[in-house]
Amino acid sequence: MKKVFLSAFFLFLTNILMAQGYYQVTTETLNVRSSASKDADIVSKFYLGDSVYVIDYSKSWSQVKVNDTTTGFVASKYLSKDFKSSTKSETKSYSSRTPIDFSPFIYAAIIAICLYIVYRRYKSKCKDCERWYAMKITDEEVVDRVSASVKKTTKERNSKGEVIRTNEVYIPATKTKYLVTETCKHCGHEKKYYTTETKEN
Ligand SMILES: [Zn+2]
Questions:
Q1: How many structural domains is the chain composed of?
Q2: Is the pTM of the predicted complex or chain greater than 0.70?
Q3: Is residue 102 predicted with pLDDT exceeding 60?
Q4: How far apart are CA 73 and CA 32, in angstroms?
Q5: How much is the average pLDDT of 15-22?
Q6: How far is the CA of 117 from the centre of ligand 1 (A)?
Q7: 136 CA to middle of ligand 1, Å?
Q8: How far, in Å, from the CA of 89 to the mean position of ligand 1?
Q9: Which run of H or E residues covers position 24?
Q10: Residue 122 Cα, ligand 1 centroid: separation in angstroms?
Q11: Domain range for residue 55?
Q12: How far is the CA of 185 from the centre of ligand 1 (A)?
């Protein structure tokens, strides 16, 4: 499981670091030339906002895909990295723009998962013998139990499904305080801390 996330994350990083991918055209008209020179023949044109697939990016001239069989060269200064479509399939049409692209959300989710893994690793590290995934909960003792209430917001909707009113209600609940004991499975080092949990009655 962890390996899958890490390789996905690595893929995501290489996608950013490697210059290959989709770029956006930042000038009104961008000439595509047959070779990397201002004097070379114009083979095609791109327009402002077009998503262009770059095969080989370099400082002055970049090689781009014109269609499935043709490539050409454009001035790199009129290209900006297009993160929204950088993971799109290469076989899609090169200038069409889809209205919704979920890849930024997927990236965000991958980063969140990786951060969570790092956090879990850090949390379960034994401070004594410094081994990873060492701390395991071995005891949970109830220290205190008090009545509490949880706020709930309910929404009233009309026939069209639009929210016409929101109500706030308090539901009786119980707040429990625990003394948690974690023990290192290697050296037996103990860590104790308090935690509270509120549950609806
Ligand atoms: Zn330990």
A1: 2
A2: no
A3: yes
A4: 5
A5: 66
A6: 20
A7: 11
A8: 47
A9: strand 21-25
A10: 13
A11: 2-106
A12: 7
Q: What is the whole-number distance in angstroms between the Cα of residue 7 and the centre of ligand 1?
A: 29
For residue 115, report the distance from its CA to the centre of ligand 1, in Å.
Answer: 23
- What's the token pair of residue 67? 């269609």
Q: How far is the CA of 116 from the centre of ligand 1 (A)?
A: 22
137, 108 Cβ separation under 8 angstroms: no
- Give yes or no for residue 91 having a pLDDT over 50: no
Instruction: Please indicate, yes or no, if residue 195 is contained in any of the structural domains.
Output: yes
* C-alpha of residue 187 to centroid of ligand 1, in Å: 4
Q: What pLDDT is recorded for position 34?
A: 92
pLDDT at 68: 86
Q: What is the pLDDT of residue 121?
A: 83
Contacts of 19 (CB under 8 A, 6+ apart): 54, 56, 57, 58, 62
Res 200 pLDDT > 60: yes
Distance 94 CA to ligand 1 centre (A): 56
Q: Do 13 and 68 reside in the same domain of the chain?
A: yes
Let me know whether 166 and 70 are in one domain: no
| Amino acid present at 114 | C
Residue 188 CA, ligand 1 centroid: distance in Å: 6
Q: Do 100 and 165 belong to one domain?
A: no
Q: How confident is the model at residue 17 (pLDDT cuts 50, 70, 90)?
A: low
pLDDT over threshold 80, residue 94:
no
Pairwise pLDDT comparison (55 vs 3), residue with the higher score: 55
Note whether 129 and 162 are within 8 A (CB). Answer: no
